[in-house]
Amino acid sequence: MAQTSASPTPLLKDELDIVIPTIRNLDFLEMWRPFFQPYHLIIVQDGDPSKTIHVPEGFDYELYNRNDINRILGPKASCISFKDSACRCFGYMVSKKKYIFTIDDDCFVAKDPSGKDINALEQHIKNLLSPSTPFFFNTLYDPYRDGADFVRGYPFSLREGVPTAVSHGLWLNIPDYDAPTQLVKPLERNSRFVDAVMTIPKGTLFPMCGMNLGFNRELIGPAMYFGLMGDGQPIGRYDDMWAGWCMKVICDHLGLGVKTGLPYIWHSKASNPFVNLKKEYKGIYWQEELIPFFQAATLSKDCTTVQKCYLELSKQVKAKLGNVDDYFIKLADAMVTWIEAWDELNPPKSSAELPNGKGK
């Protein structure tokens, strides 16, 4: 069973930032206090920058609103979405820590089947600190968890695994559904707690949800761009999906791992399906062309850093998706701006290079 109690000494206390996008007071942090209080928070305030966001006392945090984003990035602030939770990726950019955990403000502490509170952050850290197995599927799921191992027939040459770049958590109560599914299943709730963590195989894409997500910023940070969404854009609610597709292509190329499963959070609030449909409707039919594009995407051997991979991918987006809609030309340019802004705030280190197809 996954451990659910807080550690006496919090794991990675000085190496991890918690990034929270919000438009409202952060009262939800009270429930998370036992698990989050030792860590530094980066709050990205969306919407009206003149509004004051209340943060409960006792938390160590920095808060950025749109004025701060414009001041820090100047003209490059155009790559950061407005009036959309995609603005959270600004927090990834200004962080100086090795790891990021990001969570939405309508996500509460879930309970495991025994009734214990789940320390989602601790489980993400465990996922990130243990290897992944993207090249060969283990039928007992994560072989590095207590009580599991590699099954008979698993190649010994692959048992060392590869570094884990991303830990993708799940949700009890309100599932992360698209608008059409919300409309036909308005009362559906997820009550299934599956005690499993697994590596998503190489060559397999998945729909990444940004509301309960951990990642190694040093390994994959520049690929975690949540795109152009929200105000002034023709699409919303595809920010985390876009980041997930780009990230997975790059992880596959660089030989990095992505895990999904535990930990669960309690997703408390269903968003309005009619509002969601308005945001999603272009994406719902665009994705039928986007998915084959990412499935077929390959990166050259010269792409030895995440930045190089991302810039090459942006060229392919412009060349191959520009005919789907002009939006993708604009998005490809924003991908380049994002990398330029990232490198300005985070000067590249030569040690970030990974041999093609091998872990660090």
UniProtKB/TrEMBL annotation:
Superkingdom to which the source organism belongs: Eukaryota
- Per the UniProt record, the site (Required for activity) maps to 152, 159
Q: Name one GO cellular component term.
A: cytosol
Keyword entries, A-Z: Cell wall biogenesis/degradation, Glycoprotein, Golgi apparatus, Isomerase
Tell me, in a sentence or two, what this protein's role is: Probable UDP-L-arabinose mutase involved in the biosynthesis of cell wall non-cellulosic polysaccharides.
Record field: catalytic activity: UDP-beta-L-arabinofuranose = UDP-beta-L-arabinopyranose
- Where found, per UniProt? Golgi apparatus
Q: Which organism is it from?
A: Escallonia herrerae
What's one GO MF term for it?
A: UDP-arabinopyranose mutase activity
Question: Which GO BP terms apply?
Answer: cell wall organization; plant-type cell wall organization or biogenesis; UDP-L-arabinose metabolic process
User: Which Enzyme Commission numbers does its entry carry?
Assistant: 5.4.99.30
Show the taxonomic lineage.
Answer: Eukaryota, Viridiplantae, Streptophyta, Embryophyta, Tracheophyta
In its UniProt entry, what is this protein called?
UDP-arabinopyranose mutase
Entries under InterPro entries matching the protein: Nucleotide-diphossugar_trans, RGP, RGP_fam
What's the family? Belongs to the RGP family.
* Residue positions the entry lists as glycosylated: 152
Q: What is its main location?
A: Golgi
